[in-house]
């Protein structure tokens, strides 16, 4: 039996996840660069870290970092030389929690977010975030300007507050939710990249939901929330159909998580 893949720690998700050649892109199979491969390129080629430093930041062995980096460089070469579309998705990774001893102090992206969004949270609290606007569920995850954050205990809401996203969008919003220590996100339309970011942060997703935000949270706690388990809305058209992604009753244990990583 093969050993489970250890999750690779990443600082943040790429904001641009797809690159398409100006000419002759139609019908060509895209090169898939995984998020952990992207991270090695970002750390080694852009930040100028050594492979040893890269492995420390990603909390993996140096030989593993080297293999990931070599794979990333080959894929980038294929895309550039053959003029192929490039898409960044997938991989075995998790968001940095801001406590990595090799993070560079004030330069650590997640440490800054934790300073902005840190909230006390008891061990028995479920923290639920909802994309929010004027009392309702905002239907475009990547453009939400506010989350309403609820703390629930024993199936009841014990507190709530509205939190600004400070103009962040798409993958960065998953980092905000991670810093907020959210356990669950309720939203309308959401793209595949953002779903992957939430899964990497271990945040349960209930997408394709519309209507009153408070009522949706109450329904979640009661086990009656209608949502779309496999919501598929592109980042160009999230929620553009009046929130009408349809609905399904909550399936027991449903969560959009990666199940392949070990600590």
**Integer average pLDDT:** 79
How do the SSEs run, as a string of H and E?
EEEHHHEEHEEEEHEHEHEE
Number of helices: 7
The SS-based structural class is alpha/beta
- How can the largest sheet be summarized? 6 strands, mixed
Oligomer: single chain
End-to-end separation in angstroms reads: 18 Å
* Proportion of beta-strand residues: 15-25%
Report low-confidence residues grouped into runs of 5 or more: 235-263
**Shape by Cα distribution:** globular
Share of helix, binned = 25-40%
**Number of beta-strand segments:** 13
Which radius of gyration do the C-alpha atoms yield? 19 Å
Give a verbal description of the structure.
- The chain is built from 7 helices and 13 strands.
- α1 packs across α3.
- It has 263 residues and is of the alpha/beta class.
- Helices cover 30% and strands 19% of the residues.
- Strands 6, 7, 8, 9, 10 and 11 form a 6-stranded mixed beta sheet that branches.
- The model is unreliable at 235-263 (pLDDT under 50).
Brief sketch in words of this structure:
The protein is α/β, with parallel strands linked by helices and 263 residues long.
Q: Any chance you could write out the topology, listing elements then pairs?
A:
Blueprint: E1 8-10, E2 18-19, E3 31-33, H1 35-46, H2 51-58, H3 62-82, E4 86-88, E5 93-95, H4 109-117, E6 126-133, E7 136-137, E8 146-153, E9 156-164, H5 171-179, E10 184-186, H6 192-200, E11 204-206, H7 213-222, E12 226-227, E13 248-249
Parallel strand pairs: 1-5, 3-4, 6-10, 10-11
Antiparallel strand pairs: 2-4, 6-7, 6-8, 8-9, 12-13
Helix pairs in contact: 1-3, 2-3, 5-6
